[in-house]
Write a structure and sequence with these properties.
Blueprint lengths: L5 E5 L4 E6 L4 E5 L20 H17 L12 H16 L1 H14 L3 H14 L2 H11 L4 H7 L6 H11 L6 H13 L4 H10 L8 H5 L6 H14 L2 H26 L3 H12 L23
Helix pairs in contact: 1-11, 1-12, 2-5, 2-13, 3-4, 3-7, 7-8, 7-12, 8-11, 8-12
């Protein structure tokens, strides 16, 4: 009889995530375990399996987001909020191919061609995604290039920095954990989420290219599946590092996204106008059934 695989990773000082091939996953608190009899006290050393690796990765995301669960922002979409989200989307994707290639080169030098090949492939897949966000911004009738050049949303900056830092490390395996976290969260977005955004946007104008491709409807699902498969094939030390970084990235992401989502429309419009140094073009108002570029009706 083959033994079922168990994988575990200590993600914070006290908490480990444990996943069994039989389908169980749980958080294990070291201080609550009998010290001399804790089977998860030492790092795992065995082979991974897709079914257990995915539970560790998703457990790490859940744990990271649990920190803000009490005051998680869930605002209804508005045009200013969506513009700001697209600016954030641009920043989190514009350097991704370059960063991934940098990490790939390092693994090539380290004699790990399989990791380099995986990262190269991801770099190819992510190429051009920043342009999707720019096209969506243009479709909304705002000066896309000026906005992204002059505005880095406060909650997004730490995320971009994290990825930059991870990719230039001597051993940049954490870049996979960061990417997994970002893509897994994007892949949770459903058709109904996209429809809610489309409903506030001008009719007949495509403003959701980025959102669609970074949702359950787009390529993100296959990116997530490929990553799970790849991470499960890595040696135990690497899987541990990837899961830990998934947790660290989830913490930063939860704080950062929430910071942006908690802003009022008035605050966002102020930020956007400051970035372009002039009032925004009249923003589409779905209640009046206008198109971008239409002048506001006289009051
Ligand atoms: Fe992407
Ligand atoms: Fe992706």
């Amino acid at each position: 009889m083959t033994r079922l695989i168990t994988e575990w990773v200590n993600v914070t000082g006290d908490i480990s995530i444990i996943a069994r091939e039989s389908g169980e996953v749980w958080f294990h608190t070291a201080s609550a375990a009998k010290q001399d009899n804790d089977p998860f006290a030492a790092p795992m050393t065995g082979a991974g399996a897709e079914s257990t690796t995915v539970r560790l990765l998703d457990g790490a995301i859940n744990l990271g987001f649990a920190a803000i669960e009490q005051n998680l922002a869930r605002p209804v979409p508005t045009i200013p909020g969506y513009i700001l989200a697209l600016i954030g989307a641009y920043h989190t994707s514009v350097d991704t191919p370059r960063n991934l290639r940098r990490a790939a080169k390092r693994f090539e030098d380290l004699g790990r061609p399989e990791v380099a090949a995986y990262l190269e492939e991801r770099a190819r897949e992510e190429t051009g995604h920043d342009r999707l966000a720019l096209k969506d911004l243009r479709a909304l009738g705002v000066p896309a290039e000026r906005l992204v050049a002059n505005l880095m949303p406060e909650g997004i900056a730490p995320l971009c920095k994290r990825f930059d830092d991870l990719c230039v490390r001597d051993y940049p395996i954490g870049s996979i954990g960061y990417s997994y976290c970002l893509e897994r969260i994007a892949a949770l977005k459903q058709e109904s989420d996209i429809e809610r955004v489309q409903a506030i946007c001008p009719e007949g104008v495509d403003t959701t290219r980025f959102l669609r491709s970074h949702s359950a409807l787009g390529s993100e699902v296959s990116h997530v599946e490929e990553t799970i498969k790849f991470v499960a094939s890595l040696p135990a030390d690497d899987r541990i590092s990837v899961v830990r970084e998934t947790y660290e990235s989830a913490l930063i992401m939860a704080q950062g996204y929430n910071h942006e989502l908690l802003k009022s429309d008035a605050e966002i419009i102020r930020e956007l106008e400051q970035a372009i140094g002039e009032p925004l073009p009249h923003l589409y108002n779905p209640l009046r059934n206008e198109k971008p570029g239409d002048q506001p009706a006289a009051a």
